[in-house]
Amino acid sequence: xxxxxxxxxxxxxxxxxxxxxxxxxxxxxxxxxxxxxxxxxxxxxxxxxxxxxxxxxxxxxxxxxxxxxxxxxxxxxxxxxxxxxxxxxxxxxxxxxxxxxxxxxxxxxxxxxxxxxxxxxxxxxxxxxxxxxxxxxxxxxxxxxxxxxxxxxxxxxxx
Length: 159
Ligand SMILES: CC(C)(COP(=O)(O)OP(=O)(O)OC[C@H]1O[C@@H](n2cnc3c(N)ncnc32)[C@H](O)[C@@H]1OP(=O)(O)O)[C@@H](O)C(=O)NCCC(=O)NCCS
Description:
Elements: H1 3-6, E1 11-14, H2 29-43, E2 47-53, E3 59-70, E4 73-81, H3 90-104, E5 109-115, H4 119-127, E6 131-142, E7 146-158
Parallel strand pairs: 4-5
Antiparallel strand pairs: 1-2, 2-3, 3-4, 5-7, 6-7
The structure holds coenzyme A.
Residues 3-4, 7, 79-81, 86-92, 114, 118, 120-121, 123-124 line the site of coenzyme A.
């Protein structure tokens, strides 16, 4: 199968609680606890959590869209594609699916952040039309009860 066709086999749908068991590739226990904690917000319509599934049902992509940060702006976050299936166009399609959900909910702008030391992801976002609008410091819990702190660029594109 040509690499250019593989991404078309991935179908995107809303994350369900039972999907957490097939997302261990996307991060450790702390990350999965964070994803599980966002499920309640997804039921309330504050966030959209999407997973990308192969025809056999196995999950190979996930990403979130936060609609509650700023009126008219959809924040894409937690973007991840299974390590063995990166660079095949799945990430591009995942972002497209999240952007469509943002449009459906009336957003005029898509925003995301990328760590200063992730040039490959930055290059992908730029190719998809995102432009840097600022920088920020982000932090999230990691194993051992510690907090990871990192510098990020903020990027936006019109929808
Ligand atoms: C960043 C990430 C989500 C992008 O997903 P992806 O599926 O790898 O992205 P895409 O395949 O759509 O595009 C990325 C690359 O594939 C290439 N590509 C896209 N479609 C392709 C195709 N059909 N055939 C071959 N290559 C293709 C792109 O040119 C790009 O090239 P690069 O590898 O030199 O960067 C994924 O790589 C990932 O999970 N990375 C680790 C976690 C992470 O960094 N998350 C983002 C935090 S901000």
